[in-house]
């Protein structure tokens, strides 16, 4: 797949960078060797909401650990989140990084000997997991503060944070900062606009969708986005170069079409004041990642408690430190907020309405249209 907009990049190192959103694919967080604790999986923790905090703490200490798939320390500041949770209860944590598709497959394959308790998947995989019957329903303590579009009505998944397609602009190379997708067609940007390969990269697929939204399309009608990139390529404004931290550092990227969290993270890591991050005002797309619990979780009390914790002020602020936009409207500390773009910058951002359709478009329709219509225009 291309799971996570490419998981490893929210807080990547120079070495691991864009090894995010670009392509997601497997990877390696902390290896999980784990032998799960005994338990009956989804049948457990039925009394979770009736427990006092002291009783819950005892249950969690008794379970002793929590195991995750696709939630490494380096992703979206999860290291801080895991430390906060495990320290609170005095338990251990292990993770194996993998794609969203792999997470669901492992939940299912391991149901007789479950290993993982929780996972973090791309939005289209929440409904898939529910349909396949591998997720445990749990409406966390902050459920009413999560927008309806960002959660399953039955509690099987909920978005913790979002990413929005933005322009990363190097003002040393670009005199006039573009504000819209149509600006990118101007002659002054000849050979300056880069995007990853949409036939492989989840980040780039979202970039094409963002262009579609800017021109009247959506997840069910990607053609306006394809038409835009045909014009961009035909104008000679496209520069065939991967948008990653190394190429930015070398000054080879003029304008990159990327996730906002990638752009902000790279700007922060490189300490490059010349980098400006712009949310295109004519339209773009915001796509979330969602938290899920394995139906067969060997540590169900801990799994539900961690799900609650992910949506707490503490964890939501930690996500923001990793440049992911929290799904809840939490008040961020000034030093964290100043590194993010203001909320009003996202006025043009649209959300997906049909997750299943986007999954189909991204995996089948978009790649074929790109190869048939856009690539022939490349100069």
Structural features:
33% helix; globular; alpha/beta; 379 residues; disordered N terminus; 10-stranded mixed β-sheet
Brief synopsis:
The protein is an alpha/beta fold. The chain has helices at residues 53-63, 78-89, 100-109, 125-132, 202-214, 223-234, 245-249, 260-270, 300-310, 313-321, 334-337, 355-374; strands spanning 65-69, 92-96, 118-122, 158-170, 193-194, 255-259, 275-278, 284-293, 325-326, 349-351.
Structure description:
The structure is a single chain. By secondary structure, the chain is an alpha/beta fold. The chain has helices at about 55-65, 80-90, 100-110, 125-130, 200-215, 225-235, 245-250, 260-270, 300-310, 315-320, 335, 355-375, and strands at about 65-70, 90-95, 120, 160-170, 195, 255-260, 275-280, 285-295, 325, 350. Helices cover about 35% and strands about 15% of the residues. Helix 2 (about 80-90) links the parallel strand 1 and strand 2 (about 90-95).
Shape descriptor: globular
Order of helices and strands: HEHEHEHEEHHHEHEEHHEHEH
* Helix/sheet category: alpha/beta
Number of helices: 12
**What would you call the quaternary organization?**
single chain
- Rounded radius of gyration (Å): 21 Å
- Sketch the major β-sheet: 10 strands, mixed
Spans with pLDDT under 50 lasting ≥5 residues?
1-42
Number of E strands: 10
